[in-house]
Amino acid sequence: MTSRDGYCWTPKDGLKAGVPSLGVVTPASNICSSEATYDVVVIGAGYCGLTAARNASLEGLKVLLLEGRDRIGGRSWSSNIGGYPFEMGGTWVHWGQANTWREVLRYRMEKDIESSFDFSKGVKHFELNTHQGSATMSHEDEDALLDSALKKFTNVDGVYGRVMIPLPHDTFHNPGSIALDSQSAQNRIDDIASTLSPQERAALETFILLCSGGTLETTSFHEFMHWWAMSGYTNQGMMDLLITWKFREGQSTFARRFFDEAVATKRLSYSFNTPIERIKDNVSDVEIITRTGRKFRALRAISTVPLNVLSSVSFEPPLPAGKQAAIRIGHVNQTVKVHAEISNKDLRSWTGITYPYNELCYAIGDGTTPAGNTHIVCFGGQNKHMDPETDIPRTQKAVSSMFNPDHYDGKSVDIQRLVFHNWSKDEFAKGAWFFPPPELLAKHLDDMRARHGKVVFANSDWALGWRSFIDGAIEEGTRAALEVRKEIEDLRTERATL
Amino acid sequence: MTSRDGYCWTPKDGLKAGVPSLGVVTPASNICSSEATYDVVVIGAGYCGLTAARNASLEGLKVLLLEGRDRIGGRSWSSNIGGYPFEMGGTWVHWGQANTWREVLRYRMEKDIESSFDFSKGVKHFELNTHQGSATMSHEDEDALLDSALKKFTNVDGVYGRVMIPLPHDTFHNPGSIALDSQSAQNRIDDIASTLSPQERAALETFILLCSGGTLETTSFHEFMHWWAMSGYTNQGMMDLLITWKFREGQSTFARRFFDEAVATKRLSYSFNTPIERIKDNVSDVEIITRTGRKFRALRAISTVPLNVLSSVSFEPPLPAGKQAAIRIGHVNQTVKVHAEISNKDLRSWTGITYPYNELCYAIGDGTTPAGNTHIVCFGGQNKHMDPETDIPRTQKAVSSMFNPDHYDGKSVDIQRLVFHNWSKDEFAKGAWFFPPPELLAKHLDDMRARHGKVVFANSDWALGWRSFIDGAIEEGTRAALEVRKEIEDLRTERATL
Q1: Is residue A413 within 8 Å of A342, Cβ to Cβ?
Q2: CA-to-CA distance for A256 and A341, rounded, in angstroms?
Q3: Residue in B with minimal Cα distance to A239
Q4: B413 phi and psi, to 5 degrees?
Q5: Inter-residue contact A473 to B103 (CB < 8 Å)
Q6: Both ends of chain A: CA-CA distance in Å?
Q7: What count of Cα atoms within 13 Å lies in the side-chain half-sphere of residue A444?
Q8: How far apart are CA B331 and CA B433, in angstroms?
Q9: pLDDT 10s digits, B413-453
Q10: What is the DSSP-derived secondary structure letter of residue A359?
Q11: Which of A51, A97, A101, A236 to mutate to test the interface with B (most CBs of B within 10 A)?
Q12: Distance between CA atoms of residues B251 and B113, nearest Å
């Protein structure tokens, strides 16, 4: 099935909106009437909503899942094109990500992952293009460069953050770390600038922007340190946990397991293509009003609407001031992720940075397509933002500028296909994965996590651990389903007692 | 409540069998009659059985949990004595352990953990006592010593095992790694012996024995590499993941959450003090016969009996040859874990090795008791085995031999209390956590995991990831409950269709 989401460009067909995905659900609804009162309505069918809906339905609740899109997965989904899965959003997983890996094992998918990196083939170098010039180096030297830079960046306490953030699921466990959240990545770089070589600085800044999708000024230093702590306080840990292991058949094969298991309980109703407009907390239930005016009722609601989208939903009674303030601030991640299929077969083992003058700044060889082409995945963000679909020649140039022809006998890369999702223009995402500006977390993490009457707010954006990751989404969906299930049980017990 | 398990010795009261624990369940049974046919009977109330029983009951099955002991937790439980929790078995957890941490987050216990290590107080050194003499060094030097030794030990492929075991949940993913399972730790040490300093070798051998509880000859080199891979291929990762974070109030507070949640479903029946003798697979159900001749029936059984105990249960029809072979081989871990409360307040930040001539070889300062004494936890194993309860003066000597009086102004330590569980003499454990001898896994991992008719075998002993850990127990309990729940659903559907 083809989703409305995503774009694909080829020389032959030009730009097409909408790409195929296993995540598209058809028929889009299994609801007969709107009359019923559900135990819980789950808004959003990303990993958080899928987890909440699955757990609640497995544990006996009558669940309604509403989703604005035509597909499951939210900010993580894959499109299989020409027998090859392109990851449109969240991609990588690792056994150190508790909530994700618990599900990978539960679904017996532990053999269904493969490494993005294969440093055994053809051009086995890292390419670094900056205002200072263009250099290539081995991947070992690439690791050493970033390792050195990250050690300087993160060493706030003499032990690389282990004292400042000892227990990363309790972000501000050490109150001294709150000050780190007042700092931006730029502030921290300014502090250590004299210790960084130009190459270290370029690699470091690019890597930070790869994580945050913002600018150095809008990137919370604390949140970067939180990622670092979650990854075991090492560059190698970040590589392993953030950007190595992906599903061989694509993310949507994983998301499908959650959805299909929930459907199999026969307690899940769902409606896709159903954006919601209003959530009204009544005395005895909560009412969900869709954009087309349909109404649904449930004893509880779980909203998995991301922070940057929450302002598009109206709440009765209105949300409390703290949550409203967090929504006004929003998160800063405007990552641009562009897949390019290039005919240069030798580039499977290539990685590169072009920074800061290009719209895309970081890229890696990510696979070989059935056609024998090299698949590279490129990242840009708010630092030098573009909408890839609006000007394809410009997007092509941003991709080809990742490669300096000097290193390839004067040849530039030959782009056979581009695949991407414009997350910034996506009304249900308004950005990529959550990344906070300074002070948002210290001031409003608890506000973002707080419930509002019968509505529980769950999203990876405010998870405790792998916040911003698939893992955080599953963490939050698990929390929300458990909270709601216990309340529904209490309601049933009350009624039985009356 | 006081469990029959465990021992406590004090100068005043001498040796007492049985220590208090939150894990003791009272009344020990909530079964009215044996007439009912359950959906599933779960044998064993360790973390694996607790997880299976909880998940199955949450998802609507009628569950019977049978346990030979008077308490939950199996090989992981804590005893609170004098307001201080002593960990009798499995202790440490980490957010990199997927199944465990998913539950820690789900039960909102992420703030309920603390570090065993506190290197800020008094005697801040590591003490190494060997046949070559006695030395002290800083904890930084201790880390560097083991780090250097482990790098030599694990570097089988030039990248510290990353090529040999790239995907640790698929242990033999690289077929080349099967050869590692033919090697013992002793074989590998022989290969690299010329590169190790005497201190490196002593630290390395002690650490390997701390992991396996066997001898160097009976320790599979592959399984050690598996632990190493699970820990991120670094010494620091092993320290973080294996031996750092524990529950502030003790393991049994965690196990209780599973049990209490299962009880709250009202679908869990249970009977403690109920060892089983026989499992009989009939045409339409499975029959469990206890040691006292009580019979229970269920559609399916989940046996969480550990490998070393399986020979005490008879099966009809008999178990297949592969599983029987694995049971005959068994695992090799005969760890002796002894807690000592010592009046020397300055030793909180102390760590030590005394090897190979002492019954205990590795110890750390693990806390300060409410009485102001230092709590140290000591480990020994098959290498030089003792039963701590049979000869208390000898046990005291083994503890005090961890300290060389030369380093403490000629003073020896003053032992105020000993607490321990003799896992080797425990009929329901017959050893500590699973550790395989060479070839057991390569030949029989699949056999151990295989079901037998209506009986699903689940135990951390044959988990894919954190095999031998609490995490592996939860992994296996999750797998078993899901498998059984799907089958029961299918049976119901079949019956409804007839």
Answers
A1: yes
A2: 26
A3: B232
A4: -80, 155
A5: no
A6: 50
A7: 20
A8: 9
A9: 999 999 999 999 999 999 999 999 999 999 999 999 999 99
A10: S
A11: A101
A12: 10
- For residue range B322-339, list pLDDT tens digits in order: 999 999 999 999 999 999
> What span, in angstroms and rounded, lies between the C-alpha atoms of A9 and A5?
14
Partner-chain contact A99 B95, CB within 8 Å: no
How far is the C-alpha of B132 from the C-alpha of B198, rounded, in Å?
Answer: 8
B437 close to B220: Cβ distance less than 8 angstroms: yes
User: Hey, what amino acid is at A473?
Assistant: A
Q: How far apart are CA A465 and CA A80, in angstroms?
A: 30
Q: How far apart are CA A229 and CA A240, in angstroms?
A: 13
Type of residue numbered B255: A
Set of chain B residues whose Cβ sits within 8 Å of the Cβ of A99: 98, 101-102, 105
What single letter denotes the amino acid at residue B444? H
> In this structure, are residues B245 and B218 in contact, taking their beta carbons and an 8 Å threshold?
no
Tracing tokens 């009046």 back to the chain, one arrives at: B343
Q: Which amino acid is at B419?
A: V
Given a cut of 70, whether residue B33 has pLDDT beyond it is no
List chain A residues with CB under 8 Å of B475.
Answer: 102, 105
Beta bridge partners, B302, equal B42, B456
DSSP state for residue A384 in the 8-state scheme: G
User: What backbone phi and psi angles, to 5 degrees, belong to B417?
Assistant: -160, 145
The verdict on whether residue A224 carries a ligand-binding annotation is: no
Residue B230 scores a pLDDT above 90:
yes
- Chain B hits for A166, Cβ within 8 Å: 115
DSSP per position, B407-432: GGTTPPP-EEEEEE--STT-TTTSSS
CB spacing of A465 vs B105 below 8 angstroms:
yes
Contact at 8 Å (CB) between B377 and B362?
no
Q: Which two tokens mark A462? A: 């405010």
Q: Could you tell me which residues come within 8 angstroms of residue A400 by beta carbon, excluding any fewer than 6 positions away?
A: A412, A413, A415
Instruction: Note the pLDDT tens digit of each residue in B35-85.
Output: 689 999 999 999 999 999 999 999 999 999 999 999 999 999 999 999 999
User: Which structure tokens are listed for B140?
Assistant: 């930084």
Residue type, position B490, single letter: D
d(CA B177, CA B154): 12
B487 vs A: CB within 8 A:
no
What's the count of helices (H) and strands (E) in chain B, helices before strands?
A: 12, 21
CB B152 within 8 A of CB B207: no
Say whether residue A20 is in contact with chain B using an 8 A CB cutoff.
Answer: no
| Distance from the B38 Cα atom to the nearest Cα atom in chain A, whole angstroms | 18
Q: Is A481 on the interface with B (CB under 8 A)?
A: no
Nearest CA among A246, A251, A248, A249 for reference residue A71: A251
Q: How far is CA B207 from CA B181, B202, B235, in A?
A: 19, 9, 11
Q: Which residues in chain A show pLDDT less than 70?
A: 33-35
ipTM beyond cut 0.90 = yes
pLDDT of residue B35: 66
Tell me the chain A residues in contact with residue B105 when contact means C-beta distances shorter than 8 Å: 98-99, 169, 464-465, 475, 478-479
Any bridge partners for residue A135, and if so which? A128
| Chain B interface includes A106 (CB < 8 A) | yes
Do residues A219 and A212 make contact, with C-beta atoms less than 8 angstroms apart? yes
- Residue B174 DSSP one-character state: S
B69, exposed or middle or buried, with CB in 10 Å at 0-12, 13-18, 19+?
buried
Could you give the 3-state DSSP secondary structure of residue B130? Answer: strand
Packed helices B321-329 and B440-449: angle between N→C axes, nearest 10 degrees:
130
Determine what percent of chain A falls in helix, strand and coil, rounding each to the nearest 5: 35, 25, 40
B237-282 pLDDT, tens digit each: 999 999 999 999 999 999 999 999 999 999 999 999 999 999 999 9
Give the distance from residue B60's alpha carbon to the nearest chain A alpha carbon, in angstroms.
7
pTM higher than 0.90 = yes
